[in-house]
Sequence to fold (391 residues):
Amino acid sequence: MYNSKAVIAGIVAFLVICTSPFWANFGSGDYKKPEVVLPKKPECIESAEFMRAEHMQLLNEWRDQALRHDNRQYVSSTGKKWEISLQNTCMKCHNDYEQFCDKCHVTNNVDPYCWTCHILPKGSK
Amino acid sequence: MNKNRRSFLKVAGLSVFALSSGATAFSSAAQAMVSPGTYEPAPKELKAKRWAMVIDTRTFRTADDYKAIIEACHAAHNVPDIRSKADGHEDQEIKWIWTDSYKHAFPDDLNEHLADRVKKRPFPLLCNHCTNPPCVRVCPTQATYQLPNGIVTMDYHRCIGCRFCMAGCPYGARSFNFVDPRGYLSDPVPNPEYPTRMIGVVEKCTFCVERLAKGLMPACVEASEGRILFGDLNDPESTVRKALAENYSIRRKPNLGTQPGVYYIV
Ligand code: SF4
Ligand code: SF4
Ligand code: SF4
Fold:
C-alpha cells in the first residue's frame, strides 16, 4: 500500500479517539440507583413501576386530554379519581422537587423544562 | 432482461408497501394511550354549546371602574406587569383584558357625532373567542385551537413563538413574551395553582377554561358584580341571550366575519 505506515497509524489513531469515551468510562464505577425521598402519602395515581417507566408519556397524555379534550379527570386502573394537574395533583404529594424529581433527572442527565412555567411547591417561582 | 426488470419492480413495490404500512401501524401505535386508566370531564364542569360574554358598558364610567376586573384576571392567571420594573422593557405589555377608547375598539363605526356618553366611555377588550378565529387558522403548530364549546384557547407547550397568530388576530388580543415573565411577578406568584408562561410564547385570555372546569365563572365576571354576563349563546333561556334580546349590543369589527363571542351593550 502506498504510504502504508502513515495510513495505518492514522487508522489506529482514529479508532482510539473514536472509542476513547468508552475506554475513559470503563471500570469507573457502576451506575448507582439514585436514592429518592418518597412522599409520605402511600398511593400514587398508578403503581410505582408504571410511574417510574411511563410518567413522561402519562404527563403528555394528561396534557392533551385536559387541554384538547377538556377531560380534566383521570380514573385510575383502581377506579380512583384524580384531577389532571401536574401542579395541583402530582406536586401536592411530591412536594420535594430536589429530593424526588431531580434525583433521577440529574443522575440520568435529563433536563425537563416543566418548571419554566409550572410552579414548584414551596414558593419557588 | 425485461422479465427481470418486471419482477424486480414487483418485489420493490411490494416491499415499499409492506414497509410503509408497517410504518403507519407503528406511528399509530406510538399515539395509543399509555395510561391504564380512563379520562372523563371534571365532575363540576360548567357546560355550554357556545360560551359567550356580554359586557354592560353603561354601568362603567372611567377606566378605573375596570381596574378591579383587570386585576382579578391578571392575578388569577399570573399575568406579569412588565412596566412595573424600570429595566428598559417598559415599552412591553402582557395583557389578557385591558381598556381602550371607542374609536380604537370599534374603528368601523365612523359616526363622529356619536353621543359623548358612548364615545368617551372606556371599553374593556379581551379575546373575542371568535367563531371563525383567524388565529387558529394561521397557527402552524395547533398551539392555538378551538374547543367545541367555542372557547379559543392555547397549549403553551406547543407554541413556538412564531407570532403568526398575533398578525392574524384583528383585535390585538395576543401578547408575546419577549422577556421571561417570572421576573415581573411576585414570589410566590399571585395564583400558585396556575402556571406562568415562559419567554418566547404568546398568551391571551382563555375564557377561564380552567375555572369553568371547576364549576366557577370567569374571574372577570366574578369581579364585575353582575355587570359582565357569561353564558351559553345557544340557549335562549341563558342570561346572555336574555340580555342581548332586551338591549342594543355591538361587537368589534363585525364586517371581518370572525363572529366575536364578546358583546357590548352600549
Ligand atoms: S379575538 Fe383574536 S385571538 Fe381571540 S379568537 Fe379572535 S382572532 Fe383569535
Ligand atoms: S406564536 Fe404560538 S400560538 Fe401563535 S401562531 Fe405561532 S405557534 Fe401558534
Ligand atoms: S374570561 Fe378569564 S381569562 Fe378572559 S379576561 Fe376574563 S378573567 Fe381573564
Remarks:
- The helical segments of chain A are 4-25, 48-68, 86-93, 101-107.
- The mean pLDDT of chain A is 90.
- The interface with chain B takes residues 45-46, 50, 54, 57-58, 61, 63, 65, 67-77, 81, 83-84, 87-88, 113, 116-119, 123, 125 of chain A (CB under 8 Å).
- Residues B 73, 77, 96-97, 126, 205-208, 218-220 surround iron/sulfur cluster (ligand 3) (CB under 6 Å).
